[in-house]
Amino acid sequence: MKKDRFSQWGRFQRWSRYHFLRIMRLAATPHSIAMGCALGIFVGFMPIVPFQTVVVLALAFLFKGNKIAAMAGTWISNPVDLPFFYYGLYLVGKALLPFDGPAFDPSNLEMTHLIEAGWELFAMMVTGGIVLGIPAAILTYFVTKKLVVVYRKRRALRMLKRRSTYAR
User: Fold this and answer.
1) What would the DSSP string read from start to end of 56-82?
2) Rounded CA gap, 36 and 65, in Å?
3) Residues 63-75: b if buried by 16+ CB within 10 A, e if exposed
4) Domain DUF2062: where (predicted)?
5) pLDDT the model gives residue 109
């Protein structure tokens, strides 16, 4: 089966590759890029969608992470998977907290509904976000750092090989 570059899947693959390469080519250290991605993933797990950008930029500044990579990391929580994401956070938080909070309706994710449900629902979702976000951020840090180092090493070897070919 031939890939159709104009299909939805083809567009998604091109979009993903483009953003992957943009992150790999950032003018920053592998540690800074990995820290930014990890912070972005962590904040992406928090139920604070309208404030994610502000929070992740503040954390990236505080922890000296790359701000662009941090903002890209928050894309883990996007409108398509947000109901499933929030429901998962709710279930984890509900299992860990001692009180029985309000019921969560994943079909109604308006901020007014979440505010009306109260701080108990928010506390459950934040607890779930912290519990799931910390291991995800740690894993993201090490995977991203390794990817950046390997990508840059391979790219340097490719460029060196090209230069030696032209130098002859």
Assistant:
1) HHHHHHHHT--HHHHHHHGGGS-TTTH
2) 4
3) eebbbbbbbbbbe
4) 14-155
5) 63
